[in-house]
């Protein structure tokens, strides 16, 4: 049983926790942005309900030390909302030429966004401009993660591939071979040596850093359904949320299901996130519920438990970035019928008013 359950009323697409307060935001299929204050000893309190977008609110992130919330939508707009008042700070129309599907924080001053046509944009909140733009994929961007030490952005896509975008060179460094299934989620583990991707079939694909053309290992026993969300607990364990509603703790190399964490009664798990203090795991599902699971004991076990056997790892030379050729897809590109807007570029001062 979850420590806290919040009935959002409608299907949620994304959740994000405030960076230092007991607040959680959710974006709904209705286009609404909700903000709650949570406490283990009392029901969650709704603080804000904002009609953020004319279409669904697919992605939500706190920015600027939690003072603002950024949301993205299929209406191709990005909205920044004041966290205290719920008032609109700025709305940028045609931020992307297609539906905005994912926004993630990279550093304290940069975010990345991905759209339904495979384009990724990086925004620098200090320079208040678009600093990078990558046409990385042929289908929607499903997930993005950031390797801060090497300044590389990794993204998964519905086209069945994993991309590596180099922020130092502003180039797409490499892209994996195309899988026959959609890649839906991605995390970096094993101190940067492994990249784990969740797939539509329920298989986890493991890539070795620097050898991204093809996966080095597969874990096929996790789920018969798609792995829609991955959240790294530590360097050896990842939390997986699946289409069948199950949330599981999974060991990587050796690959094993460690224990179930919770479930959403067979409803797909759309998103997973940690609270700022890592006391709670938040899960949002198609059952319209946001559940907060108490992870205190689990995290303590992680800190005190024995590490997995490192001999299970393969012997790839992980210090090399040897992949540098981008494959051409053999798949047909399924472009969506959307009205193209202007390239935001550096001229659109999105963060000027934040």
UniProtKB/TrEMBL annotation:
<dbReference type="InterPro" id="IPR036322">
    <property type="entry name" value="WD40_repeat_dom_sf"/>
</dbReference>
<dbReference type="InterPro" id="IPR050505">
    <property type="entry name" value="WDR55/POC1"/>
</dbReference>
<dbReference type="InterPro" id="IPR017422">
    <property type="entry name" value="WDR55"/>
</dbReference>
<protein>
    <recommendedName>
        <fullName>WD repeat-containing protein 55</fullName>
    </recommendedName>
</protein>
<dbReference type="InterPro" id="IPR015943">
    <property type="entry name" value="WD40/YVTN_repeat-like_dom_sf"/>
</dbReference>
<keyword id="KW-0217">Developmental protein</keyword>
<feature type="region of interest" description="Disordered">
    <location>
        <begin position="303"/>
        <end position="354"/>
    </location>
</feature>
<keyword id="KW-0539">Nucleus</keyword>
<comment type="similarity">
    <text>Belongs to the WD repeat WDR55 family.</text>
</comment>
<feature type="compositionally biased region" description="Polar residues">
    <location>
        <begin position="345"/>
        <end position="354"/>
    </location>
</feature>
<dbReference type="InterPro" id="IPR019775">
    <property type="entry name" value="WD40_repeat_CS"/>
</dbReference>
<dbReference type="GO" id="GO:0005634">
    <property type="term" value="C:nucleus"/>
</dbReference>
<keyword id="KW-0677">Repeat</keyword>
<feature type="compositionally biased region" description="Acidic residues">
    <location>
        <begin position="311"/>
        <end position="324"/>
    </location>
</feature>
<keyword id="KW-0853">WD repeat</keyword>
<feature type="repeat" description="WD">
    <location>
        <begin position="269"/>
        <end position="296"/>
    </location>
</feature>
<dbReference type="Pfam" id="PF24796">
    <property type="entry name" value="WDR55"/>
</dbReference>
<dbReference type="InterPro" id="IPR001680">
    <property type="entry name" value="WD40_rpt"/>
</dbReference>
């Amino acid at each position: 049983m979850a420590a806290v359950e919040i009935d959002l009323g409608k299907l949620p697409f994304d959740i994000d926790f405030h960076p230092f307060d007991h607040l959680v935001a959710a974006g709904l299929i209705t286009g609404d942005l909700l903000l709650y204050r949570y406490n283990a000893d009392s029901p969650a309190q709704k603080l804000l309900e904002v009609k953020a977008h004319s279409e669904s609110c697919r992605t939500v992130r706190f920015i600027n030390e939690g003072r603002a919330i950024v949301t993205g939508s299929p209406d191709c707009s990005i909205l920044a909302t004041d966290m205290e008042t719920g008032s609109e700070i700025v709305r940028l129309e045609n931020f992307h030429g297609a539906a905005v599907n994912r926004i993630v924080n990279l550093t304290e001053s940069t975010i990345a966004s991905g759209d339904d046509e495979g384009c990724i944009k990086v925004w620098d909140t200090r320079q208040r401009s678009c600093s990078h733009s990558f046409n990385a994929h042929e289908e929607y961007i499903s997930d993005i993660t950031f390797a801060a030490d090497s300044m590389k952005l990794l993204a998964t896509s519905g086209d069945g591939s994993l991309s590596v975008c180099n922020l130092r060179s502003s180039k797409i460094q490499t892209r994996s071979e195309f899988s026959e299934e959609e890649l839906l989620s991605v995390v970096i583990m094993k101190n940067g040596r492994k990249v784990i991707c969740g797939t539509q079939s329920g298989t986890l694909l493991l890539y070795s850093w620097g050898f991204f053309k093809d996966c080095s290992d597969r874990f096929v026993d996790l789920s018969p359904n798609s792995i829609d969300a991955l959240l790294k607990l530590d360097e050896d364990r990842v939390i997986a949320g699946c289409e069948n509603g199950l949330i599981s703790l999974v060991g990587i190399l050796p690959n094993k299901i460690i224990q179930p964490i919770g479930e959403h009664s067979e409803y797909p798990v759309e998103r997973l996130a940690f609270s700022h203090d890592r006391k709670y795991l938040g899960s949002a599902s198609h059952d319209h519920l946001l559940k907060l699971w108490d992870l205190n004991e689990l995290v303590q076990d992680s800190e005190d438990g024995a590490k997995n056997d490192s001999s299970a790892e393969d012997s790839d030379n992980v210090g090399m970035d040897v992949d540098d050729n981008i494959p051409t897809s053999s798949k047909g590109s399924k472009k969506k019928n959307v009205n193209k807007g202007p390239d935001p570029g550096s001229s659109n001062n999105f963060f000027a008013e934040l």
